[in-house]
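Lecture notes, unit on binding sites. The following record was shown on slide 14. It pairs a sequence with PMV.
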Amino acid sequence: MTENDFIPKAYTHLPEKGKVGWKAPSNIALVKYWGKKTNQIPANPSISFTLDACATQTQVTFTKKEDSKDFSFDLLFEGKPKEDFKPKIKTFLERIEPYLPFLKKYHFVIETSNSFPHSSGIASSASGMSALALCLLSVENKIQPMAPDFFNKKASFLARLGSGSACRSIEGDLVQWGKHEGIETSSELYGVKYPFDVNPIFKNYHDTILLVHKGQKQVSSSVGHNLMHDHPYAEKRFEQAHSNLDKLKPILGEGNLEAFMELVESEALTLHAMMMTSMPYFILMMPDTLEIINKLWRFRKETKVPICFTLDAGANVHVLYPESVKEKAIQFIQDELVAHCENGHYICDRIGTGAKQLFEE
Ligand code: PMV
């Protein structure tokens, strides 16, 4: 498929008004996306677990307007107007307008809220952009109904234009994004459900997110992605992501936890190594991030409990473990790791099944 396949044919009628709502989850990458080409095309393929508890709920009310010269929308975050989010939404609308040409014909009221605490340091762009993309696409679906499979692809395609990793937040439970030879259905334009067999051990996987630092990070993801241009290790890193995706296939199929933990932790540290070797260089991990990693390694060595970590572009630590060791893992987290979290805060999440439509009127 190409970008042009997402341009709809001319609309024959536009409803006067309506309302749609979606809940979309966040996701955590196992093989990381870091580095992009123009138009939010990833420099390497990635794969993530879709999450469940960390989610954004968005509802969009739309009313036809007289003049269609510009975009018109109000934005409410947790019930209150949020002016500082508006420029980002406007840029998103501009990017997706060629694929949703009704956007200037309506006034929208966008009401959105997150299930996770405000400024928890959890990136809300993946869940936020996917929830908004799904709402706007539901409006188009009312104008011109589309097949469910195409709907998911287009939702992912639109979400990607808001925030790259958001394209992996439409479906569950494992989603791959970016062209990769070993995955025939893969695309750089949208995320696809991982097409291979996955051992049941990965079905109820847990992700306990340790909130080490809840504030704004000093370097945004978009700045970080850009620093992969002219990065001395970029090409090797991109090759490694392809090779790690190939390695994951038997690991996920056989349920090989040892190999899974090794690959996932190596990916997390490589992501941060790319940050530390960019020019300018930067470090997003904090002393408590390293304390947690060291304690986790020690615990795993002593107890053989298969618990590992991954990181996103920040200081927080995602602790991953299978359902079978849930009690032991939680006990260890409470006894030893929570002390390293800001105000003792952490979020218990697990692998989820994807976005859900809340209503359509
Ligand atoms: O979607 P962005 O531009 O916020 O980038 C996200 C990048 C990582 O979270 C670090 C990795 C990933 O694949 O999600």
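Take-home: Residues 29, 32-34, 46, 123, 125, 163-165, 221, 225, 271, 312-313 surround PMV (CB under 6 Å).
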